[in-house]
Specification:
The protein is an alpha+beta fold. Helices cover about 30% and strands about 30% of the residues. The chain contains six helices and twelve strands. It comes from Paenibacillus qinlingensis.
């Protein structure tokens, strides 16, 4: 069961990127029987990345890593390679290192999962209200909260919003939320429904509102909502800055994700 949970975390993450590529048109999702990756002509986040990779028994992984990297280099893009702890392959890691890729611990992400069967939480803040984004005005509020919460530089804000804010707002697989404290927008969150599970993404709280429990309370309210809809499991992939938030709501760490790059 544990390996199944780990696979669900990765699958939800990969499928979210696949969906975002189709909705936004800003990058391409490329897949074969062993590799799932994203590529584009723009430099932003992980939209130029190998999301999953299984080594071929007949092809030298050192050569294949170089071949894949070259396809990005030709476009003038830096490649990021995700390496999952539960799928650790010493030969793949050696192939990455042989091609001068390095893992940066500061960028390491953590995969969490939570079974919603019999789950409950007492997370509550008087005056806090979570609202699903339905209108353009509400979407603009969400946009401002996530840009501030993630500290997105002004020169890439349009790219970020086109991929992660505007495109998913028009698809039923995604739902944005904004958390308000006594009417003031203080946190944001997005859920992605993938089969029988839900992934929680874009948990963002501007600096002035952090360490007050708003994100935890927003997550708990979203979990109650999807639990009532019959969803059995929720997953999260967290950045180093946010990974301490999720255990307080009941999430359990299942895997780590190293990001190799040059």
């Amino acid at each position: 069961m544990s390996n199944h949970i780990k696979e669900r975390i990765v699958d939800n993450y990969v499928h979210a990127y696949e969906k975002l590529s189709k909705l936004s048109g800003m990058f391409s999702f490329v897949e074969n029987d062993r590799i799932q990756r994203c590529e584009s002509n723009i430099s932003f986040g992980l939209i130029n990345s190998v999301l999953s990779y299984k080594r071929s028994e007949s092809k030298d992984p050192v050569d294949e890593v170089k071949e894949i990297e070259d396809s990005y280099t030709e476009k003038g893009q830096r490649l990021f390679w995700l390496f999952y702890s539960h799928e650790a392959d010493e030969l793949v890691e050696k192939a990455l290192l042989a091609n001068k890729f390095q893992a940066n611990e500061e960028n390491e992400m953590t995969g969490f999962a939570l079974s919603l069967e019999n789950w409950s939480s007492d997370q509550h803040i008087c005056g806090f209200e979570l609202q699903a984004v339905r209108t353009e005005v509400e979407l603009e509020t969400y946009r401002k909260v996530v840009l501030a919460g993630f500290g997105i530089p002004e020169n890439v804000q349009d790219i970020f919003c086109r991929i992660f804010v505007d495109a998913p707002s028009h698809d039923k697989a995604f739902q944005h939320y904004v958390g308000y404290m006594e009417g003031e927008p203080v946190t944001a969150i997005t859920v992605f429904k993938d089969g029988g599970g839900v992934g929680i993404y874009n948990v963002a709280t501007p600096e002035a509102y952090r360490r007050k429990g708003y994100a935890r309370t927003a997550i708990a309210q979203v979990l109650r909502e999807i639990q009532n809809q019959g969803v059995k499991q929720a997953v999260i992939i967290a950045t180093p800055m946010a990974k301490s938030v999720y255990p307080a709501v009941g999430f359990k760490k299942e895997l780590t994700i190293q990001i190799f790059s040059k």
